[in-house]
């Protein structure tokens, strides 16, 4: 199987993997202590962050103050309402006018408090989301976690968790916290009012609300699991549509529309079926909550009416007690009113908690030291790790790569692909890796790149691949389908070595430092690299007019600034030539290529190999084509074990010098 970065970068999960993950995960965690500890773990870092936490806490204090202000405004209106209705019932026109003016004054002062509370709260939720998404995304890329999650089918739809789950988490967490705070303060203020009016009314209310909460928990208990499933099924359906877009041409060539539609309908069916169950459960809950809401409209009046008939209270007090009753009831009945939202929230906590646990597992320094986690550690499966060592590169040093007693297994540790391989790649001694399909050629490159670590022995790399901090660049890996970034022709050429530089220079950077300490190639060097791989014709192509980024004043950018969907418009052969242009610009000491010329004609293949050899680059190639051997000095042959029926039963290896 060739290394395919397009798949790695753009495909979050294959459909089968998604189904696997979801089937293996029946529903949300209903264990309250697990949900609570995940909530704390997800929520705390922002507020305790040494840099952003201080500002966040001040903003939170502002939201709390405004929330308390809203309760103050409500209490004010409770009393204004009482006096207003008293003036009305006593037919006191002068007092009524006074009350009207006071009421209007209260509205003018009170409305900004409510509006600003909502605004500041939403803005704080947005800042929190920004922080949390950045952290999760950094962890997602650390130690190539995104690759491990994808290749190991560890969790479904990480993209959905990072984007929409985080947004919902921050919005809801802040919203609920403020609702609970509001409810607490409201409860204290209005309990006093209600108790002072008529203590039995207060007792009736307590019984009513506690009973209501219990019944709604019972009726809505299935909602947590159903909400969890709904998120997952929606993401699966959307993912199916994304796959159709990404593989439009292949599907059209195969005439696979019908089977794709069938697959999508299956997923849509799962979305609809689960939503149907969700609707039934919410309908049953709604029956109860609606009765509950309607009843409270007359309940307080019914309880205090005898006092009014006996002349013990004024008419306005009925209105005041109704208003106080409603406030307290909605405070103590939070669970009843918000049950669906709470169920959805706990499903989100569950999904995000699960995601951060997987990501933390890979992102922790121990996992870096121990090799990549994820191996099955039970059932007698060997979980030993390959030792991957980087030696500083030395311009004069001859070895570039050395493999010592390398045994390579698939990530689950079940299959052994290569056994006890010892060899060295020296400067100028290029190596071709051949063997039947499935013997482990690409996997060997994965191990050298550090993507797979299951096995034993040692790999020493003399030099470093490009690292996130811009160091390295002595070693470059080139997959069969090179990754095309979204951007200009210049950005294609500069990827990955100077990718931050190009984003920066194009005005997209946010002040980030250039990624590489190597000098950025000039326009002339970029154009020369294109000429060497016979892609200079691309320089005269113009961006589609909608892409903007004009450099010639006519609205369409041309040359290196041409912006296009490069993965969509370049043929695979052209993409492979572009990958060679990147090699010529970077001039690494060693390049490891996986069927990197598979889509090229023999003439172009020769041109590219000669160009990188002339540039002093040593290369290791994986390939099937016999023509490749003339560009390499040695060949590593992986063979199925003699006597075995197929490669599943293990391989042997031999190294030969090419005459
Ligand atoms: N994530 C994975 N988990 C388990 N096994 C895997 C995984 N990825 C690949 N394999 C298996 O490992 C074996 C070696 O795969 P690899 O892609 O290295 O073969 P290859 O020699 O490059 O094949 P080809 O010439 O067809 O590209 C295959 O049998 C493949 O099915």
From TrEMBL:
Entry's SMART domains?
A: AAA
* Domain of life from the UniProt record: Eukaryota
* Gene3D superfamilies the UniProt entry points to: ABC transporter type 1, transmembrane domain (1.20.1560.10), P-loop containing nucleotide triphosphate hydrolases (3.40.50.300)
Domain spans labelled ABC transporter? 401-658
Query: Which InterPro entries does the entry mention?
Result: AAA+_ATPase, ABC1_TM_dom, ABC1_TM_sf, ABC_transporter-like_ATP-bd, ABC_transporter-like_CS, ABC_transporter_sub-D, P-loop_NTPase
Q: Which keywords label this protein?
A: ATP-binding, Membrane, Nucleotide-binding, Transmembrane, Transmembrane helix, Transport
CDD domains referenced in this protein's UniProt entry, alphabetically: ABCD_peroxisomal_ALDP
Q: Into which family does the record put it?
A: Belongs to the ABC transporter superfamily. ABCD family. Peroxisomal fatty acyl CoA transporter (TC 3.A.1.203) subfamily.
Query: What is this protein identified as?
Result: Uncharacterized protein
Taxonomic lineage of the native organism: Eukaryota, Viridiplantae, Chlorophyta, core chlorophytes, Trebouxiophyceae
